[in-house]
Design goal:
- There is one protein chain.
- By secondary structure, the protein is of the alpha/beta class.
- The protein folds into 2 domains: 147 residues, NAD(P)-binding Rossmann-like Domain (Rossmann fold, 3-Layer(aba) Sandwich); 105 residues, 2-Layer Sandwich (Dihydrodipicolinate Reductase, domain 2), CATH 3.30.360.10.
- The protein is 32% helix and 25% strand.
- The chain has 8 helices and 12 strands.
- A hairpin with a 2-residue loop joins strand 8 and strand 9.
- The chain is elongated.
- The mean pLDDT is 97.
- It binds nicotinamide-adenine-dinucleotide.
- The site of nicotinamide-adenine-dinucleotide (NAD) has 27 residues, from helix 1.
Length: 265
């Protein structure tokens, strides 16, 4: 079987570089294109601290798709750019593996429709770290017994969307088995706006943004006389490589939109 050819979108970003570095080391994958609105003209290998691979970063996704005809586009760009990228890739019948966060229900519905129109698969995961997927599964189980729960997610200070895609996914999964009710004192009030965090069906979510973090999340459950904390830390971006590799290898065999790493683990 030939190698799977892929294009890295957002190639000059923190995740783009880390994922390109991981994927370029695999014998069964071949990078054929790299797109970013930064660092145009630079070789993606050199940018990742490796030998030059002869693939330069370019700005125009359509042109790179038509020139290099990849089988898969991997997207780690930003919430403002990602839908346009997905539409463009789909129109060229290029399967997508999307790690960019900030996609809501309407966007996921549109991606699902696009996969049907263009007969091309899409894979989207808010978190490609295996441990984070397990954290969500464990949280879903714990909430059945301990429904008072708050989420604290911590990311680097350049992240632009809040709360994180992982926090939203965690809350959505917990909500499937939890009766909606408002936590905390009925007469509680905030002395500083936002101190109680965001409200998702009565559960609170808090977003910390500080240099030094990659991606961490604590899911804290409270009950009479006890608390339970499920904690996950991505201490380096390498933690996302195995999940992205798995998705790139599997996406061509999928149909429609597949959402979440747990579906292909
Ligand atoms: N799913 C996961 O496991 C996971 C893990 C970490 C980060 N993320 C998400 O990945 C995304 C990227 O994160 P990051 O930390 O690498 O951010 P970053 O800002 O370092 O990188 C984003 C890159 O996208 C580029 N870009 C912006 N608009 C573009 C466009 N129209 N076309 C091409 N490139 C464009 C930027 O120039 C930048 O280089 C974010 O949405 C983040 O939340 C997901």
């Amino acid at each position: 079987m030939g190698r799977i050819t892929f294009l890295m979108n957002g190639a000059a970003g923190k995740m783009g570089r880390a994922m390109a570095t991981g994927l370029m080391q695999e014998d069964d994958l071949q990078i054929v294109g790299a797109v970013d609105i930064k660092c145009a003209g630079q070789d993606i290998g050199s940018l990742c601290g490796m030998d030059a691979v002869g693939v330069k970063i370019e700005e125009n996704l359509t042109m790179v798709l038509e020139k290099t005809k990849p089988q898969v586009m991997v997207d780690f760009t930003n919430p403002q750019a990602v839908m346009k990228n997905i539409r463009t890739a789909m129109e060229h019948k290029v399967a997508v593996v999307v790690g960019t966060t900030g996609l809501g229900e309407a966007e996921l519905q549109e991606i699902d429709n696009l996969t049907k129109i263009w007969q091309t698969p899409a894979f989207v995961a808010p978190n490609f770290a295996l441990g984070a997927v397990l954290m969500m599964q464990f949280a879903e189980i714990a909430a059945r017994y301990m429904p008072h729960v708050e989420v604290i997610e911590k990311h680097h200070d350049q992240k632009i969307d809040a709360p994180s895609g992982t926090a939203i996914s965690t809350l959505e999964r917990i909500a499937q088995g939890r009766k909606v009710f408002t936590q905390g004192a009925p007469n509680e009030f905030e002395k500083i706006n936002g101190s109680r965090g965001g409200d998702f069906q009565g559960m609170r979510v808090h977003s910390v943004r500080l240099p030094g973090f990659v991606a961490s999340q604590d899911v804290i459950f409270g009950d009479t006389g006890q608390t339970l904390t499920i904690s996950h830390n991505s201490i380096s971006r390498d933690s996302f490589v195995p999940g992205v590799l798995l998705a790139v290898r599997k996406v061509l065999g999928l149909q429609g939109l597949t959402y979440g790493l747990e579906k292909i683990m």
